[in-house]
What does this fold into?
Amino acid sequence: MKRLSWFNAVSLTLGFAFLYIPMVILVIFSFNESKLVTVWAGFSTRWYAELMQNEAFLNAAWVTIKVAVFSSTLATVLGTLAAYVLVRGGRFMGRTLFSGMIYAPLVMPEVITGLSLLLLFIGIGLDRGVLTIVLAHTTFSMCYVSVVVSSRLVSFDRSLEEAALDLGCSAAEAFRLVTLPIIAPAVISGWLLAFTLSLDDLVIASFTSGPAATTLPIKIFSAVRLGVSPEINALSTIMIAVVTVGVITASLVTKHQVARQRREEMEAVRS
Amino acid sequence: MMRRFFLIAIPYAWLLALFLVPFAIVLKISLSDYAVSIPPYVPQFDWAEGIGTFIAQLDFENFIWLTEDDLYWKAYLSSLKIALISTFLTLLAGYPIAYGMARAPDEWRPTLMMLVILPFWTSFLIRVYAWMGILSNEGFLNQFLLWTGVISEPLTILNTNSAVYIGVIYTYLPFMILPIYSALERLDGSLIEAAEDLGCSRLSAFWLVTVPLSKNGIIAGSFLVFIPVLGEFVIPSLLGGSDTLMIGKVLWEEFFSNRDWPVASAVAVVLLLLLIIPIVLFQRNQQKQQEAEQ
It folds into this structure.
């Protein structure tokens, strides 16, 4: 049994305090009665009520969710395909360029990605709106999905696929019945990652959105530029709560799955 | 065979059309001239005139302009400086946390991991915004410091470069902690014991054994912070002041406020050139690590 030395205990405490105190303050002051964000004037849920009546925010939230659902689903399909091609595709012409295009968007500054996509959309005369944001988000998040999925593809035992093929499966059946169930956790976490990236994105959405489609981050950014406001605190609190619940549920589900898998493996070994 | 072709072609075509072609357009517009038209640049590509005349009309004027106006030089240099300093500060803050996590009892580790990753899932914008209320003149930090009597007058932190550093450390800390943690977690504790048995003090065992063995994690974490910070836009525009020059912000303003697309494109091209070196170094490091693991 290892015990924490006082040095490690202090650095962990300070580190996590630094990571969490700002958010805790944000959440607490979203329940503040006063319009002044830094002076406590009693508990109230008034800002949440005002938020629910703010048409512009609700519209933006709806656009954001639509964009996130479409783009993350599309990105998961394309990203899984790309990962499969990269790991199992063997050699083909232009493979280096392909893997370069998968990794480059991960480190590309958002301002450049946004600018280049906007210039493309204008060049081909595509009106900016929900569609263009979906295209933009799909492009960068499919790369994240493919990185997550390919790390899973690399680590799993290829002989399982080969066995399925030997036993008479077609390539498509082997993929559907063997490969897909094994990489499913990675595909799901890829989808979740793509979904949050899309929800979060300000810069690329600002470049690729038109007047008809404003996403929540764009709305928040223009409100926040004018200073701190309790309504934004309330909105932030809701978003933090959603993410926290989502992440904790996801990790509990994976934990449960891993435990079940282990149990099944143990039973298989015993029988 | 046909199916294999389609499997490869679909993601390939998507990335070509929406990643590579847009870059070609940026490069092309950076070589064009500003014009009061829609879209605001000439020459516009015209098949009828043929590609020869089109290329003849391109020039490097915008790039020469970038070298002549101080603003751009200063912005590139100051982005580099801010990115370097904040990467170093993030390393200083992140290393002890990663170290503490690697030394924590085994059953705590999944929880600690989750606590590090959780902020990464919450909106970047909100995490930056949270600091606006803390760092302002009437903010919580000043209230706290005045209350404890450390200072007698509020400090101006918001809208300065210090606020930018704090914002960067806060938002990029998980990127630094995770690779260092995974390097430290694999570290064999008996090596340190051996060093101590052989007469090293605890501190010199740390410097001579632990730090070198976590080198790969340190390098990976530093690149993961440095590369995105160089082109950062949200943090300098919300926490920085009017004198905080960062190239991401300059590009944004050139595009949205001045509507000078050719110059904005030229800024983007130069930023990309600056990033190529660290990106290539980063990929080499990752490859070396992968090979070492195999």
Chain B touches chain A through 80 residues (CB under 8 Å). The first strand of chain B starts at residue 33 and ends at 34. The mean pLDDT of chain B is 85.
